[in-house]
Write a structure and sequence with these properties.
about 325 residues, alpha/beta, Rossmann fold, 2 domains, eight-stranded mixed beta sheet, six-stranded parallel beta sheet, about 30% helix, about 25% strand, globular
Length: about 325
């Protein structure tokens, strides 16, 4: 493979700015086909984004000889089936987070990738953004000494502006999303903890549906102990008053603390000698740094930026928090 010719399965709202345009802004990469079950909307997306082909059937896109790599951006329920079909067709896959509807489905995807010998990468794209690379650097260079624990609060009203727009509330249908809004936002946060601290040793939690407005849990608390001894505690609540909105993560070490918002642009380093702030410019297409790394991986120019093995660790923690 010298030129990656992408096909998108699920060209919905999430691909309009976050990811879709990035495929044409990277060397040796182009977006040649898109698919959506609503053919009128698929055709509209293709016309607006200058994509040569559109489909209303995923099998047609997967079997298009002009497409040699697949980006899956459907709701989580469809991640497994489309990934298995694309891998069977010999086409490497970049699949949105969460990797699948649960850890068992994610494991089947990993097994298929290994069996077919076809590459699979997961869109935990914050790993590639400068802000989180800086946090990882601060941890690894001992800016706060040995890390002791991390604590996170994600408190949002039911209509959170952090949730991507969509035509239906599929994120609140556990049969499609795997859970509720926690399953949409927490994969970012939990994957970063694994990226920073390595594999979990143990994890446990509890999920509750306090509002009872739908079938999805709206409060999740969880606890992780990592192999390196770092302890993580997190609280996610999606039923607070807008005045209580919070997006805060702190990593506390023996010599200081790193504070940041997962959906923010500033990192604060506090030590005895003073406070340092690192502010990062917004990224127009937030997945572009990750997509660039995935392209290099598919072209055999680097290692996988987020393997299925790593993403399964996140899925396992999510399952232990919500399905103990």
């Amino acid at each position: 493979m010298e030129q990656i010719r992408w096909g998108i399965i699920g060209c919905g709202d999430v691909t309009e700015v976050k990811s879709g345009p990035a495929f044409n802004k990277i060397s040796n990469s182009s977006l040649v086909a898109v698919m959506r079950r609503d053919g009128v909307k698929a055709a509209d997306y293709a016309a607006r984004h200058g994509v040569p082909k559109w489909y209303d059937d995923a099998d047609d896109l997967i079997n298009d000889p002009d497409v040699n790599a697949i980006y899956i951006a459907t709701p989580p329920l469809q991640h497994e089936i489309y990934t298995l079909k694309a891998l069977a067709a010999g086409k490497p896959v970049y699949v949105e987070k969460p990797m699948a509807i649960n850890a068992a489905a994610a494991e089947r995807m990993r097994e298929a990738s290994a069996a077919y010998g076809v590459k699979l990468s997961i869109a935990h794209y914050r790993r590639a953004q400068p802000m989180f690379l800086k946090i990882k650097e601060l941890i690894e260079t001992g800016a706060i000494g040995k890390a002791r624990f991390a604590q996170l609060q994600m408190l949002q009203p039911p209509q959170s502006d952090l949730i991507a727009d969509s035509e239906s509330n599929w994120r609140l249908d556990p049969a499609i999303s795997g859970g509720g809004l926690f399953h949409d936002l927490a994969p970012h946060q939990l994957d970063l903890m694994i990226y920073f601290f390595g594999p979990p040793l143990s994890s446990s939690g509890r999920a509750l549906n306090q509002q009872g407005l739908n079938q999805a849990d709206d409060l999740v608390v969880g606890h992780v102990v990592f192999n390196n001894g770092v302890v993580f505690n997190g609280t996610w609540c999606f039923s607070v008053n807008p005045l209580s909105k919070t997006d805060r993560c702190e990593i506390v070490g023996e010599h200081g603390k790193i504070s940041f918002q997962i959906f923010g642009s500033k990192v604060v380093l506090e030590r005895e000698e003073g406070l340092s702030e690192f502010v990062f410019d917004p990224i127009l297409h937030v997945e572009q740094p990750m997509i660039e790394q995935v392209c290099c991986y598919f072209l055999d120019e680097r290692e996988n930026p987020c393997s299925s093995e790593e993403a399964i660790l996140t899925m396992q923690v999510i399952d232990r928090f919500t399905k103990p």
